[in-house]
Specification:
four-stranded mixed beta sheet, cell cycle, two-stranded antiparallel ribbon, alpha+beta, Cell division protein FtsA, extended form, globular, about 25% helix, about 110 residues, 2 helices, Nucleotidyltransferase, domain 5
Length: about 110
Amino acid sequence: MDEQKKLFALDIGTRTVVGIILEENGGQYHVKDIVIREHAERAMLDGQIHDVPAVSKIIAEIRDELEVKHGPLNKVCVAAAGRALKTERSKTSITIKGKPMTKSRIYFTLS
């Protein structure tokens, strides 16, 4: 995937997670692909994740499906909203290759 021309975005909502591939052309963005998945259970409530592994599974499924069509996706723009959230801008990068994610590690990281 051409990093300069295409963007991978995720909208993590209370009812659904949406994965979008956007392509820049002449300063405008065009939707090239979109994948929408509903949460099987109430994994989120009012924008708060209550079942991190369930939400992570949906995100991985969306990413995998889009990677089949568009190649490796190494960067993502994420949107999450809800009544319980306060909006802030930040940027971080964590290497997770070879590090298993356990429930306790996820909860510890989030607290």
